[in-house]
Design goal:
- The chain is an all-alpha fold and 143 residues long.
- The chain is built from six helices and no strands.
- It has two domains: 67 residues; 75 residues.
- Helix 3 packs across helix 4.
- The protein is flat.
């Protein structure tokens, strides 16, 4: 299996090098360069490799997650905590935090979702900083 992967990576590398050589020059207009077959082929290779990386990482993550019951329990606890933070953030977001001049460009629902996202960021930052500071303070006073 490892030999097959090595051969496939070598083939992809050679094809990519050939496509790199066939890319349009920098003085070509953008409209024509965008229609280049070499550029389209390089994007296709990129999408395929990205898709493979995502699928493989998800498969092995889920495999390891379900093979370890303690890890699954901890993961579910963390996901529940994250959903709790998102719920609290949504409740805290008012949807009217923006100047009426800018509210005309969007609706209240979109502003509320943006506020929720900001609140999630702030709450998770506070949780991360607290999880670093509290153990350090406990260690400092326990000695």
């Amino acid at each position: 299996m490892q030999k097959i992967i090595k051969i496939a990576l070598i083939v992809i590398g050679v094809v990519s090098a050939l496509l790199w050589y066939l890319l349009p020059s920098s003085d070509m207009p953008v409209a024509e360069a965008a229609q280049s077959g070499a550029m389209n082929a390089m994007f296709i290779i990129t999408y395929i490799l990205l898709g493979i990386a995502v699928v493989v990482s998800l498969v092995f993550t889920l495999k390891n997650l379900f093979s370890n019951p303690q890890g699954l329990k901890k993961t579910l606890f963390v996901i529940g905590g994250f959903l709790l933070v998102v719920g609290i953030s949504y409740v805290l977001a008012s949807g009217t935090d923006v100047d009426p001049e800018f509210l005309a460009m969007s609706d209240e629902s979109t502003v509320k979702k943006i506020g929720m996202g900001l609140n999630v960021f702030f709450l998770l930052t506070i949780i991360a900083v607290a999880s670093l500071i509290i153990p350090a303070i406990k260690n400092m006073f326990s000695k």
